[in-house]
Each structure stands twice: as C-alpha cells, then as structure tokens.
From TrEMBL:
Organism: Piscibacillus halophilus
Pfam families, A to Z: DUF4269 (PF14091)
Protein name: DUF4269 domain-containing protein
Amino acid sequence: MKHEEAISVINRLNIFRDLSEYDPTLCGTIPLGIDVEQSDLDIIMEVHRFEEFKEKIHNLYGSFENFSIKIKTIRDQQTIIANFWYEGFEFELFGQSNPVHKQYAYLHMVIEQEILKQNSKLKKDIIKLKQNGYKTEPAFCKVLGLSGDSYEALIEYGKKQSYI
C-alpha cells in the first residue's frame, strides 16, 4: 500500500528528525487513503526565518532529482515551497509562519477526513475525479456541490459543519 511505502521512504529520508524544529506534518491524500498514482507527499511546516530554512532545505535535499525551491505569497502569507523526488516519491515541503494546525493544508485534511468518515461512499467518487485530473479540494467541492474558490469553500463548509 502506498501509505506504508510513503512512511518508510519518509523515515529513510529522516525528514521528521532533520526538520523537527519546524513541526513537519504529513498532509494530503496519502494519509486519507485517497491517493492516486501521481499523488505527492505534502509535508507542511511552521517557518519564520525563510532564508535560513531555504538554506537548510537546499543543503539537505538540493542534490535530489528535480529539486526546486521558491518563496512566494499565497493568501497574503509568505510561503516557501520545495519540491524534489526521492525513491520514487515526489515530495513537496511547504512552509508558512502560521502554526501547522492553522494552515489550509492541515485544515483541509481534517475537513476531508470528517467528510469521508460521515460518508465513506464518497471515497470512490473522489478517487475517480482525482484519476481524471482533479486536484483534491476541487474534487471534494464537486461531490459536495460547493462552488467558487474550492480552497475557501471547503474551509467554509468545514466551519459550518463544525469540523474545524
């Protein structure tokens, strides 16, 4: 199963130990069991000193296949994103100054987990949409009939349902 493989690869990479000061947390489709072949490993972190973090990430993972790192603004938050491949898995390291439990990736995962717990039949629909090219949040919004910005709509839905 991809989840067990992913955990083994993450452990061999020592990512949680090497980056422990940033509270690394695995989010996304793999922990939810809705991953598809092209799903990556999303690890979110709380970062305050972006240049220092960028240097550390570059030193640790800069030699890996397809390594890239950039700093940009997402929803008015300075964000650092690093991508690379390791042992057949694509990694995305995502850092913002918000605590991990307040970042959208984490909140979306909590909401999506609750949705799947309430209606496990949606899992097949979500996976099918993802196999057809949908990103995770738009897939959830489609099956729930939510419109607009899917990232915001899912947060609002989670609040209304008292999931977050």
